[in-house]
Design a protein that fits this description.
Layout: E1 16-17, E2 21-26, E3 33-40, E4 44-49, E5 58-65, E6 68-83, E7 86-93, H1 98-120, H2 127-138
Antiparallel strand pairs: 1-3, 2-3, 2-5, 3-4, 4-7, 5-6, 6-7
Helix pairs in contact: 1-2
């Protein structure tokens, strides 16, 4: 993979790891592809892909978080082959999408914290299982964004 180049942007937001399923599609493509979200921040996210995406290419991503489907558009900031036939793609979210990203980050963090708490109790849950349980127990009390009033 070699040395990382100097990128025109600097990471300003904390990344939160995740392994949730993600759908993505190039803008203009008919069929979405599916793989795994790797991390997410307020400004963007990264995911695994089966084929390389070009820097600057526009991509739509779709996640299901807390029984809600969340879609966002962004621009490919970087794409690196991490193993033969598998790429990791960094996506900068488009303006106006950061509110959705913040909400996803908050929810993912709560779910992952719940999953970790359950692990300490001797329960091994997948992210999906933890999300289902967390939703059933805590989603009704999760704060709503101000703009949803």
């Amino acid at each position: 993979m070699g040395r990382r180049s100097n990128r025109p942007y600097r990471r300003r937001y904390m990344r939160h790891p995740s392994c949730m399923p993600i759908e993505f599609r190039r803008v203009g493509a008919r069929e979405p592809l599916r793989n795994e979200l790797r991390d997410i921040s307020c400004a963007g996210l990264s995911f695994r892909a089966q084929e390389p995406l070009a820097e600057g290419e526009m991509v739509e991503v779709r996640l299901t978080v807390l029984e809600h489907e969340v879609s966002a558009h962004g621009r490919v900031a970087w794409c690196h082959e991490i193993e033969r036939g598998v790429w990791r793609v960094g996506l900068l979210l488009s303006d106006g999408q950061t509110g959705h990203a913040v909400r996803m980050v908050e929810q993912l963090c709560h779910i992952e914290l719940y999953r970790e708490q359950q692990r300490h109790k001797g329960r091994q849950l997948t992210t999906e299982e933890a999300a289902r349980e967390w939703i059933a127990r805590y989603a009704a009390g999760f704060p709503r964004p101000i703009d949803e009033d």
